[in-house]
Design brief:
heterodimer; A: mainly alpha; 72% helix; disordered C terminus; B: 306 residues; mainly alpha; 11 helices
């Protein structure tokens, strides 16, 4: 019997051999309608964003001739020609919204990936080391939790003059705390399990135990936490861009589009489409990411439900 | 308990020193002089200004003098606002505004969040629960500027009930506080719901009810007292979120708080103001965290700090 099949049977004596925890989790995930719909919407929105971003230049204005023919200054309200309207420079808001979305999603995904790497590494080392090292490493995490880490990100951006990759690294470097806590807790639990004790008795070193025996069993919590980190990273990016500290022109993101638009909606001029479409897609994406994250958590790690919301 | 509090307050010193050192290092290492944009500045004026900020001295001397100016509340002159001391003229008048805004939002989020959490836990899987849980998911998903814009469009431009910007009367307070409180309210509602669901089937709850205590009293006095601990421990991060979240809210509603000054200082590279604001925010949050820990010890007799 293969290693994995044997493990599945040990966990679920009545389950047929070959149904791994992963397959069981996926089946539970598929039964969660909100999460599946959320995933579908996410796939469609991301595809639209990345295809538009790859195939168009950053914001071509509509031609002057067309402008003169219609005889109205920009911005234009939504029409058949420009379903989301145009901005004050005459750029099509549909294209702008999806271009901005590509940046927001790219920043969110890359920052979450960095956060997962740091968090997993830190948590695993802390849990595996145990004792005084573990206590000190967790005290650092506790201290960082209460600090206004966004200030550090802003300082980094001041230092690096708002470069794109610094934004990603900085967001990733401040969102790993939850990940580290969860991984550390799981490592502490797993390292006392019989199969780990057996591996140790057979002479496996701490690094081998961590990489071969403990980390593979952490895939569930890590995936869940990673999925829930993506919306946090996107929120941070939009927050910084909204303040003018994040992405800089000519690149755009949902936060920048919203920031540009806030001044354009007031009782005198009501260019609502400038604000509505970026905010709608940003909100929709974040909502779907949270649906998927919650769904994955319920499917893969029922124990986490009571530990954290 | 007194010993614990004193120890924690002593811990403030190395923590703040570490934050100051990191911030100072980043600003000092930033390429170019902070006066780089002012090209037509005469050489003498520039040298005089650099002397004012100890930029002509070695970095370790600048580190020490700047720290002394901050720690003794002497403050330095802002690099961009003419003739304004960053502590006395910029941060001191703005601080009560941001503090009031943040505390109001935190208070609202605790009361509203706990109430929502209790209702949806007690009426689990009812229509009310689904509506409240859905609303809470919206609350943690939408950025505060989206919520603020929606509120302004609805209540200021469409209904005309509340002013869209400004500061000074309670009507002007409503929209900023609500948009700032949205995220922590939703988060606290989710936390309370989860932990109430853990507590509700507990044996001591059944005992309390079988003694004939009224349902509401059991839920609040026996249930909530136990279910509140996760909410309390979230209040530290919540305070950090609210006080930094007010950067955005102060921008949208044109509120003259420290968030506005901090963002401006970061955009203008006004180093004295950046440093002073970072230290102010850090101290504020350390104090908030200490208060949370004291509250935790009060509420949970199992926790002993000494």
């Amino acid at each position: 019997m293969t290693d994995r099949a044997w493990r599945a049977e040990a966990d679920h004596p009545t389950a047929p051999v070959g149904r791994s925890p992963l397959a069981l989790g996926l089946r539970r995930f598929r039964a969660n309608r909100a999460a599946v719909i959320g995933l579908g919407v996410l796939v469609v929105v991301s595809l639209a964003c990345f295809i538009v971003a790859w195939t168009t230049d950053a914001g071509e204005p509509v031609s002057k001739a067309e402008d003169a023919a219609v005889g109205r200054n920009h911005p234009w309200p939504p029409s058949w020609r420009h379903p989301f309207g145009t901005d004050t420079n005459g750029r099509d808001m549909l294209l702008r919204t999806f271009q901005g979305g590509a940046i927001s999603l790219a920043v969110g995904l890359s920052a979450a990936a960095i956060s997962v790497l740091i968090g997993t590494f830190y948590g695993a080392v802390s849990g595996q080391a145990g004792g005084a090292v573990d206590r000190w490493m967790m005290r650092v995490v506790d201290t960082l939790y209460g600090l206004p880490y966004i200030l550090l990100v802003i300082l980094l951006l001041v230092y690096a003059r708002q470069q794109f990759w610094v934004l990603i690294v900085a967001i990733g470097a401040v969102t790993w705390l939850t990940m580290a806590r969860i991984v550390r807790g799981e490592v502490l639990r797993l390292r006392e399990q019989e199969y780990v004790l057996a591996a140790r008795a057979l002479g496996a070193g701490p690094l081998r135990i961590l990489l071969r025996h403990i980390l593979p069993n952490l895939a569930g919590p890590i995936i869940v936490c990673a999925t829930l980190t993506v919306p946090v990273a996107i929120l941070q990016e939009s927050f910084l861009s909204f303040l003018g500290l994040g992405i800089s022109a000519p690149r755009t993101s949902w936060g920048i589009l919203a920031s540009d638009a806030v001044n354009a909606v007031n009782p005198v001029v009501n260019y609502w489409w400038l604000l509505a479409f970026p905010c709608l897609f940003l909100g929709l994406t974040l909502l779907c990411l949270n649906f998927v994250g919650d769904g994955l958590r319920d499917a893969f790690d029922p124990k986490l439900i009571s530990r954290d919301t | 308990m007194t010993r614990f509090v004193l120890k924690r307050i002593l811990w403030f010193i190395p923590t703040l020193l570490a934050i100051y050192t990191i911030s100072f290092a980043l600003l000092r290492a930033a390429p170019g002089s902070p006066f780089i944009e002012e090209r037509d500045m005469p050489k003498e004026v520039r040298e005089q200004r650099e002397r004012q900020y100890y930029l002509d001295k070695p970095w370790i001397v600048q580190y020490g003098y700047t720290l002394r100016d901050l720690a003794t509340f002497r403050g330095q002159m802002s690099m961009k606002y003419e003739n304004r001391n960053v502590i006395h003229d910029v941060l001191a008048p703005a601080f009560p505004i941001s503090l009031g805004l943040g505390l109001a939002a935190l208070t609202l989020s605790v009361f509203a969040g706990v109430l929502v959490g209790i209702f949806s836990a007690v009426r689990r899987y009812s229509l009310l629960d689904h509506l409240l849980t859905g609303g809470a998911l919206l609350g943690i998903s939408l950025p505060s500027f989206v919520i603020a814009s929606l509120l302004v469009m609805l209540f200021s431009f469409w209904l005309g009930w509340l002013p869209a910007t400004g500061w000074g009367s309670w009507q002007k307070l409503v929209l900023p506080v609500v948009s700032l409180a949205a995220f922590p309210t939703a988060y606290i509602a989710r936390l309370t719901r989860t932990s109430m669901l853990d507590v509700l089937p507990a044996d001591f709850m059944r005992t309390a009810r079988s003694k004939g205590l009224p349902g509401g009293e059991v839920i609040v006095l026996h249930g909530l007292k136990n279910a509140f601990l996760p909410v309390l421990s979230y209040l530290g991060p919540a305070a950090a979120g609210v006080f930094t979240g007010s950067f955005v809210v102060e921008k949208i509603f044109a509120i003259p708080g420290i968030g506005h000054h901090f963002v401006q200082s970061a955009l203008n590279r006004d180093h004295p103001l950046i440093l002073a604001s970072v230290m102010l925010y850090s101290t504020l949050l350390l104090v908030m965290n200490l208060l949370v820990d004291i509250g935790y010890a009060r509420l949970d007799p199992r926790i002993r700090y000494d």
